[in-house]
Amino acid sequence: MQKIVMSSELITICENASLKNVDVDDDLGSHMPAGLRQTLDELVSQITPKILINLSKVHHIYSMAIDALVGTLRGLKRQDGDLKIFGLATNIERPFDLVGGACLVRIYDSERDARNDF
């Protein structure tokens, strides 16, 4: 398991063959998207075909963070990969819907459901 700490936020990346599970352990406010995008861009550059993002501990999300997730999905699709999100709290479903992220990124209730859909 590889852990990456960015300022006060913690992102944990667990590797399992062709799948990387990214646990975001803090809110994705205005200060977080650049670090999140950098971390996700590094995963895409490593030709990681499957990425699961756990947002169960995220209670606030800004549109720039959603943009980072959608941008990562687009990069993965160019490599025949995919990105799935699970654990989305009810209160951050609305921001996803407002910026169109829910139409582009597949969102699941559980990690098992997301894994099974790859």
Quick summary:
By secondary structure, the chain is an alpha/beta fold. 38% of the residues lie in helices and 27% in strands.
What does this structure look like?
This protein is α/β, with parallel strands linked by helices and about 120 residues long. It contains five helices and six strands, in the order βββαβαβααβα.
List keywords for this structure.
118 residues, alpha/beta, 6-stranded mixed beta sheet, 27% strand, disordered N terminus
SSE layout:
Layout: E1 2-6, E2 9-16, E3 19-24, H1 33-45, E4 50-54, H2 63-78, E5 82-86, H3 93-98, H4 101-104, E6 106-108, H5 111-116
Helix pairs in contact: 1-2
Sequence of secondary-structure elements: EEEHEHEHHEH
How are the strands ordered across the major sheet? 1-2-3-4-5-6
Q: Termini separation (Å)?
A: 21 Å
Count of β-strands: 6
DSSP helix fraction: 25-40%
Enumerate how many helices there are, as a single number: 5
Kindly state the mean pLDDT as a whole number?
A: 83
Classify the secondary structure makeup into a structural class: alpha/beta
Hey, roughly how much beta strand do the residues contain?
Answer: 25-35%
General shape: globular
For the sheet with most strands, the description reads: 6 strands, mixed
Unreliable segments (pLDDT under 50, ≥5 consecutive)?
3-8
Gyration radius, in Å:
13 Å
